[in-house]
Amino acid sequence: MSIEYIVEFMPSLLRGAAVTLEITLYSLVAAFVLSFIAGLARLSKWRIIRFIAAAYVEVLRGTSLLVQLFWIYFALPVLLDINLTAMQAGVLALGLNYGAYGSEVVRSSILAVPKGQTEASIALNFTPYQRMRYIILPQAIRSMLPSFGNLQIELLKGTSLVYLITITELLYAGMQLRTYNMSQTTLIFTLLLVIYFVIAFAFNTIIRLIERKVSVGRS
């Protein structure tokens, strides 16, 4: 009976889902921070800072996430004698990769704020920090949220690659179950689809709630 197999498989899959959630949350924090650092750096008045930020973005967006993951986990220890755990390597690779994509969201959203807002804040004698903190970012963040919502779902799906460096996340748990229960391949992968969808739906719901909250009282 399928129900019997579902009951048998779910504990292992849920443990894998917990690891997937852990990786996703850590990577989201890293990607979010890097998005703002790189996005703001792309707008810096210093050319060298803009160049470094642009190089980071182009290299990370222009190469495969899987290759980046392998490079961090396998090549970095040889090159710089930096040994990372599989979890650390996975979080670093995902954070760097999606931080590069997120930086373009930050940059474009800031540039989309009407220049009149900046001119008005200059007329009010705001410092550059005050202009960014109180005038530009609050407006730009509302524009960022939908794109960041899409990126977080992409990041969640990207976590499935970390099973290739032996992290026992959701896909790894499913592949292990399939190894010992080949006859239940369809059921196992169906359960994987359902669990990934539930997690993605939860993240989407949170983003929509945040969007509604920041839009309260604004036309």
Characterise the protein shown here:
This protein has one domain (2-215): MetI-like (MetI-like fold, Orthogonal Bundle), CATH 1.10.3720. Helix 2 (47-62) packs across helix 4 (86-112) and helix 4 (86-112) crosses helix 6. By secondary structure, it is mainly alpha-helical. It is built from eight helices and no strands.
SSE order and pairing:
Elements: H1 2-41, H2 47-62, H3 65-80, H4 86-112, H5 115-123, H6 128-158, H7 170-180, H8 185-215
Helix pairs in contact: 1-4, 1-7, 1-8, 2-4, 3-4, 4-6, 5-6, 6-8, 7-8
Briefly characterize the structure.
Helix content is 83%, strand content 0%. The protein is mainly α and 219 residues long.
SSE order, one letter for each helix or strand: HHHHHHHH
Instruction: Determine the fraction of residues in helical runs and give it as a percent range.
Output: over 70%
CATH topology: MetI-like fold
Overall pLDDT metric: 91
Largest sheet: none
